[in-house]
């Protein structure tokens, strides 16, 4: 039996917009519009994973600010740790083959995109209302 892996989800927000990317066909959740994410490496702090994944996938420097929630992935393979982050330097862009598109979207725009995870919509709405889950 394989153990559950830890992954981070990077939540970047500008006003009422959130950064989402469309997952490439060869990645889990292919085609979904969701935040940039990545696996926590052995011995790596989640905050370091947030910074590393942002550099690798978005080409920008970010700092993890606070953990928002923790949820199991849909396939049950990962424990996902959602981290609010801020951009320190650079502008997010697609830097490898893990994403096919990248957009800053409002919650309403995300609702009109498909496929998306309901958990993302719920989290974004909660953040806009000034709350946060700490699951």
Shape: globular
Strand/helix succession? EEEEHEEEHH
Question: How many distinct helices?
Answer: 3
Strand content: 35-45%
Helix content: 10-25%
How many individual β-strands? 7
CATH topology: Nucleoside Triphosphate Pyrophosphohydrolase
* CATH domain class: Alpha Beta
Number of domains: 1
Unreliable stretches, pLDDT < 50, 5 or more residues?
none
Describe this structure in words.
With 135 residues, this protein is of the alpha+beta class. The chain has one domain (5-128): Alpha-Beta Complex (Nucleoside Triphosphate Pyrophosphohydrolase). The chain is built from 3 helices and 7 strands, in the order ββββαβββαα. Strands 1, 2, 3, 4, 5, 6 and 7 form a 7-stranded mixed beta sheet that branches. A hairpin with a 2-residue loop joins strand 1 and strand 2 (17-23). The protein is globular, with a radius of gyration of 14 Å.
């Amino acid at each position: 039996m394989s153990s559950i892996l830890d992954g981070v989800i990077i939540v970047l927000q500008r006003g009422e917009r959130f950064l989402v990317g469309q997952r490439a066909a060869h990645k889990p959740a292919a085609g979904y519009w969701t935040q940039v994410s990545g696996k926590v490496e052995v011995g790596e702090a989640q905050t370091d994973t947030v910074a590393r994944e942002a550099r690798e996938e978005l080409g920008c420097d970010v700092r993890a600010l606070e953990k928002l929630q923790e949820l199991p992935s849909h396939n049950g393979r990962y424990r996902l740790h959602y981290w609010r982050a801020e951009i320190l330097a650079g502008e997010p862009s697609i830097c490898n083959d893990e994403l096919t598109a990248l957009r800053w979207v409002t919650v309403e725009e995300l609702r009109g995109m498909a496929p998306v995870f309901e958990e993302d919509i719920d989290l974004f709405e909660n953040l806009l209302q000034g709350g946060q889950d700490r699951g």
